[in-house]
C-alpha cells in the first residue's frame, strides 16, 4: 500500500505524531460513506498506523462457520485469507471470541499457518472490531518478518481499532437510517397506488399491505417494492 494513499499521515507515527495521525485517521474513517467503504479505509490505514504492518485485511467469522474476507489492502492478503475459505477458523481466530487480540509471532514455528508461510507472511496481529454471539469482525495486520508485532504495536493497534469500531458503528447507523427512509418511501408509494386503484383510504391501503405481508410471509418493504415495480412497468 503506497504511502501516497494518505499523504497527511506519517508512516508508523509515535508520540504526539501518533495522536495527530489517529485524529486524521478518524476523520478519514468517518468520511467513508458506507460500512463497506469504512472497512476498506480501515485496512488501508492500518499499514500506516500500525508499526511494522505491510498488509492488512478485515474478516468476518461466524461461530461454527467459515471465515469471509470483507476488505484487503492487496492480493497477498486476499490470497492468504481466501485460502482459509472452506476451512474451520484457526484456533488463533477462535481466541478472539474471548480476547480482543491474537498474535502470530512466526508462522513457520506455529502449527497450522502454512498458508501464511507459503506467501512469505511470518507475523500477524489480529484485533477484534466487533463481536456478538454469532459473529466476529476482525482486522488483521501482516508482516514478512517474524516477531514484528510486539506489545507497543499491539497497543497502537488497539487504539486504532477503537477508532475503526466507532466509525463502523456510525456507518452502520447511517445505512440503517437510509434503508428505513427508503422503506418508508416505498410503503408510501405502494399505499398511494392501492388507494388509487381500489378507491380506499390510506389506513385501509396500509392494512392491505400488512395482510399481504403476513399471508405471503414476505417483508412489508418487499411487498411494497413489488407493487411499485408493477405499477412503474405498466
TrEMBL record:
Coiled coil: none annotated. Pfam families: ANTAR (PF03861), GAF_2 (PF13185). SMART domains: ANTAR, GAF. Keywords: Kinase, Transcription, Transcription regulation, Transferase. Gene3D superfamilies: 3.30.450.40, Winged helix-like DNA-binding domain superfamily/Winged helix DNA-binding domain. InterPro entries: ANTAR, CheY-like_superfamily, GAF, GAF-like_dom_sf, GAF_ANTAR, WH-like_DNA-bd_sf. It comes from the Bacteria. Residues 167-228 form the ANTAR domain. This is Transcription antitermination regulator. It comes from Streptomyces djakartensis.
Amino acid at each position: 500500500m503506497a504511502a501516497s494513499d494518505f499523504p497527511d499521515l506519517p508512516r508508523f507515527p509515535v508520540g504526539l505524531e501518533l495522536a495527530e495521525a489517529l485524529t486524521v485517521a478518524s476523520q478519514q474513517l468517518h468520511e467513508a460513506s458506507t460500512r463497506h467503504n469504512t472497512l476498506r479505509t480501515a485496512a488501508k490505514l492500518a499499514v500506516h498506523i500500525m508499526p511494522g504492518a505491510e498488509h492488512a485485511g478485515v474478516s468476518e467469522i461466524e461461530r461454527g462457520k467459515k471465515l469471509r474476507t470483507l476488505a484487503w489492502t492487496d492480493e497477498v492478503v486476499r490470497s492468504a485469507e481466501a485460502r482459509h475459505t472452506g476451512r474451520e477458523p484457526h484456533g488463533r481466530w477462535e481466541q478472539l471470541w474471548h480476547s480482543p487480540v491474537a498474535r502470530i509471532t512466526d508462522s513457520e514455528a506455529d502449527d497450522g499457518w502454512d498458508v501464511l508461510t507459503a506467501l512469505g507472511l511470518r507475523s500477524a496481529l489480529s484485533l477484534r472490531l466487533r463481536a456478538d454471539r454469532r459473529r466476529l469482525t476482525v482486522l488483521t495486520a501482516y508482516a514478512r518478518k517474524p516477531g514484528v508485532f510486539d506489545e507497543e504495536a499491539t497497543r497502537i493497534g488497539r487504539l486504532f481499532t477503537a477508532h475503526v469500531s466507532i466509525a463502523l458503528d456510525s456507518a452502520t447507523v447511517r445505512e440503517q437510517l437510509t434503508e428505513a427512509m427508503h422503506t418508508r418511501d416505498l410503503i408510501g408509494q405502494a399505499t398511494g397506488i392501492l388507494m388509487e386503484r381500489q378507491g380506499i383510504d390510506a389506513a385501509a391501503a396500509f392494512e392491505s399491505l400488512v395482510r399481504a405481508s403476513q399471508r405471503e410471509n414476505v417483508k412489508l418493504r418487499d411487498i411494497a417494492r413489488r407493487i411499485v415495480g408493477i405499477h412503474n412497468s405498466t
